[in-house]
Write a structure and sequence with these properties.
alpha/beta; 18% strand; 349 residues; Rossmann fold
Length: 349
């Protein structure tokens, strides 16, 4: 490893390897769940000829929409470190951060074992979080045309294999592939319909993440893929609680205004990418995403900030997929992130 991370990476790999099968019980001080955000919406009365008619008790009244579900675990020594909020990507849920498809420890448990309080959020419109279904019901009732039905995104196995960079073509893995491809079917079970097309602008997940950071009296926001730039978007809405940003494998916004860059420059930021960015047939967006993030990192630093690009292959860490938190070396990568947090965020505590 010919970078300044060489010794750090080696030590992290060695330490994490020892904990892949923990010999000690997981001890926590508290765990639970709650919702963040949401808004009350009055349902419009249905037409008299609608299914169920106006006598349907579910047809009117107030509902809560766009709330974000959060589950958490706080370790005994959690107050020593800044809490970490983990948000999943497209067509997935917070299961992303839990046990890996092949049954190994996920980042959620590992961070807790490293005395970090972890908060797992389901994006609004996904899994246990809420969404606004009134358009769907209005089409069913005939009050709006079917053309207004939102698109429900469902990622196929083939698309996942390609976009997640498991191999050059479907069913063929890279020789050094770090994702446990023998367990790919278990990953496919994690992939669920994505209702983001129902969401208003701005995405309420951004606002809810910022609100959560304030609620926690300071937090590190971590996003991946579809949500990779969500921490930055949240900080631009309200930076008050955002102590650090970790953005993993996503396109970056490079057209930010001077005042926006000034806001982000006050928050330590880490961007991480895996390997084989340009090696997948039929999907060539990853090199552009990487380049956009290189530009973003430079823009933040030029504004006086502390942003860092962590390119794993440039550090000598080969074969990582888009699903870094589920790869075979996921705990070693977690230690790199934890070391970055200790150096750039928690040193200020």
């Amino acid at each position: 490893m010919k970078t300044r991370y060489g010794v750090l990476a080696f030590l992290a790999f060695a330490a994490a390897a020892q904990e892949s099968k923990p010999s000690k019980p997981l001890v926590i001080a508290e765990q639970g769940s709650f919702f963040v955000g949401g808004e009350t919406k009055a349902l419009p009365p249905p037409p008299a000829n609608a299914p169920g008619g106006r006598g349907n008790p579910f047809a009117s009244g107030d509902v809560t929409v766009n709330q974000m579900y959060v589950q958490y675990q706080i370790p005994v020594n959690g107050n020593r470190h800044t809490p970490v909020v983990m948000v999943h990507g497209c067509c997935l849920s917070s299961k992303t951060w839990e046990t890996t498809p092949d049954g190994r420890m996920g980042w959620n448990e590992y961070f807790v074992r490293k005395d970090r309080s972890v908060y797992l959020a389901d994006q609004v419109s996904r899994a246990r979080s809420g969404f606004d279904a009134t358009t769907i019901n209005a089409v069913k009732a005939g009050t709006v045309p079917p053309s207004q039905l939102p698109n429900v995104l469902m990622a196929s196995h083939q698309i996942a294999w390609s976009i997640f960079r498991f191999g050059p073509t479907y069913g063929k893995a890279f020789p050094d592939e770090q994702f446990p491809v023998d367990a790919a079917d278990e990953l496919y079970k994690q992939m669920i319909p994505d209702l983001n097309s129902l969401l208003p602008n701005p995405n309420p997940t951004w606002t809810n993440m910022a609100t959560l950071a304030v609620k926690l009296k300071g937090a590190i926001l971590m996003g991946h893929s579809e949500s990779g730039f969500f921490p930055e978007q949240s900080a631009l809405i309200n930076p008050a609680g955002v102590r650090g940003i970790i953005s993993i494998e996503m396109p970056c916004e490079t057209m930010l205004k001077k005042d926006q860059l000034a806001t982000l420059a006050k928050i330590p930021t880490l961007v991480m990418f895996g390997d084989h960015l340009g090696d997948v047939q039929g999907f060539n967006n990853w090199p552009m995403s990487f380049d956009s993030c290189q530009t973003f990192v430079k823009q933040v630093n030029d504004a006086g900030g502390n942003a860092e690009m962590m390119s794993l292959p440039k550090m000598g860490i080969k074969g990582n997929s888009h699903m870094l938190m589920q790869d075979k070396n996921n705990l070693q990568l977690a230690d790199l992130i934890i070391a970055w947090i200790d150096k750039n965020v928690d040193k200020k505590r």
